[in-house]
Amino acid sequence: MEPETNQSIPQVDFLKRSDKPEIEILRFASLLKRRDHLDHSPGNPHRLRFYIIMVVTRGSGTHFIDFLPYTFDQGSIILVSKGQVHAFDFTASWDGFLIMFTDDFLSKHLIHSDILSLHKLYNYHLHQPVITPGKHERPMFENLIRGLTQEYEHPDDFAREELLKLHLKIFLLKIERFKQGQIPDNSNTETILTFMEYKRLIEQHYKETKNAKDYAQQMGISYKHLNAVCKRIAGHTAKQFIDGHVILEIKRHLATTGFSIKELAYEMGFDEPTNFVKFFSKHTRTTPAKFKQSLKI
After folding, report:
1. What are 48-94's pLDDT values in tens digits?
2. Burial label, 174 (beta-carbon count in 10 A; 0-12, 13-18, 19+)
3. CATH code 2.60.120.280 region(s) in the chain
4. CATH topology of domain 2-182
């Protein structure tokens, strides 16, 4: 992993190697050993430009994703999506595997239906990021991660990318099936694709417009239909979903940048800092300054 810091938000890119597929598997213990030699601190909040699956094989602890603590135990599987801010808690005693991969690896090796399944799996509006399989399911996931790791470390390069793709696909599908058994998802493909498109547009243009009707018009659908999609997938109206995304982005920036409140207000697309503070206070019941202070930044 290599970091990139700009005036917007610190981000961590996947370290690409010309002769290697864009997937990496390592033990958490290995990350512990290399953390002092990295250009960023994995224990501090940072934003990913790739996906991570964490498989806990021993111990327990807490992982922070978008400023929320998620507890985990032996056997837990933690999904951190591209774009999320997360931080490791190195005070916890645990070990396990980290599987890291990029969009490029997926688009190169997975077909459309596979990518749709992945987006459903990593959509934190549909599912919690931590699952803990029971004693009966745990050996299956342990065998899957063992097979994926063995293939990753295999000395023979022949068909390695294709085999890694197959191992990863099976692993992801098994996780999705487990999640479906926990919380049935009755949303059809069209509804999920519509929501994914809305989410993508918000991520790209939330600084320019925070009006849900603008996005509905851009998508060529009615505002009523967009509202129904958001309520079904995220449990919120289209407007509430935008506001929630903006609040999360503000928190991410407060935690990871040196912007003043005035600078951040303009960065987030607000006309006046006072409107920015009112918006944040309305949705969080605290001020941006107090929130930043609570993080001890």
Report:
1. 889 999 999 999 999 999 888 899 999 999 999 888 889 888 888 89
2. middle
3. 2-182
4. Jelly Rolls (2.60.120)
DSSP-derived secondary structure letter, 124: T
Q: Which two structure tokens, joined as six digits, stand for 105?
A: 């690896």
Q: Is 3 helix (H, G, I), strand (E, B) or coil?
A: strand
Q: How far is the CA of 154 from the CAs of 99, 150, 244, 251, in angstroms?
A: 16, 6, 44, 42
* Selection from 65, 54, 63 nearest residue 91 by Cα: 63
- pTM greater than 0.70: yes
Distance, in Å, from the CA atom of 130 to the CA atom of 67, rounded to the nearest integer, reads 15
Residue spans in the chain of domains classed CATH 1.10.10.60: 189-294
The rounded radius of gyration (Å) of the Cα atoms in the chain is: 20
Dump pLDDT digits (tens) for 254-279: 887 788 999 999 999 999 999 999 99
Phi, psi of 209 (to 5 degrees): -145, 140
Identify the helix (H) or strand (E) that includes residue 106. Answer: helix 103-109
